[in-house]
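**Discrete fold encoding**
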Amino acid sequence: MRGLRKPSLAARDAPPPRCAAMAVGSVPYVDPAEAMRLVLERTPEIPAWPQLPRRSYLENMYVQFTEGLPGIVVDEPGLRAYVQLDAAAEEIGVFLEKLDAGDPAAFAVSPRYAAGLPLLGRALTSIETPPPFVKGQITGPVSFGLSVPFEDRRAILYDDTFRDIATKLLSAKARWQADVLSLWAPASVPLIMVDEPSLTQAGSAFISIPEAIAFPALEECLGAIDCLTGIHVCGGTDWGRVIALPVDVLNFDAADHLDSLLSHGDAVAGFLAEGGMLAWGAVPNDERAFTLTAEMVGGRMVDAAGALARLGGSEVEAVLAASFVSPACGTGSLPAEVAERCFALAAETSSWLRARL
């Protein structure tokens, strides 16, 4: 069982996704309009703002959420972002005053750092039939803290003060997104995904991610988001520990790391029984997407959903009704034609599964 909380009010009130196709973060375009077109065409039931790392270094998934971080220096030509401690000492007071004011808009993600975000707003306000869901995202505090260093290259994750500051900054940016998504699409359920690729390295001999540091930061960040919340980990991890966090949606790599999730099958079955949802990253993020069919991808999902259903004493249809379908990870580093195929295959798999629900 999940342990820390029951599903949020948003989770209890949300419609079942019924294998709706979902995007994951980045796409390989420079033109925000082209990116938004792909998202709206292939994931119309849960439109999201696309991250565009090829447009600008500012849209790198770690740099994108650094606005407002005390002492941050973004060297675009050098492709480096770091915290300068002397400047940070002068800026922390202003940062804390903004936090105390309680206005998430003080930590907005600007169009310069996320060109796709305002395009999502325009699209949502012009759609006649509101989508069931609308999606935003942030980078989680563990991955952010490992990837944004001080000027001497020490990761801020290991500094108690800056880990706390970063966690609060990311939480505020998530709350701001939830607010604007609710404003743009008041009839839709906002979902904020927290991207934590570094959790695939938990327990690794190469990267130190102490549980006593990582999971309290994640718990604080996820618990501060007052809407449907999810976590994306694009690989194997300790899903039993992740499920114990205050999270409503698990987005996992079902293309190459399905066994990692199924090895925690009892915990996942309990998560589903409590109203949790799964976002199956069932489409591989490479040229295998051209060799696979919706029946092949969907059939593998049905088999795994059946195993979870048996563990939870439910029906496979109930597991699939609580599921989304997505690429295994963001597609920003792929050739455009491969990314487009990944999106198309997710949409085709969604349709194939729904015909069997």
DSSP finds 13 helices and nine strands in the chain. Residues 133 and 189 are 5 Å apart (CA to CA). The first strand starts at residue 20 and ends at 21. The beta strands are 20-21, 72-75, 80-83, 133-139, 189-195, 228-233, 249-253, 277-283, 323-327.
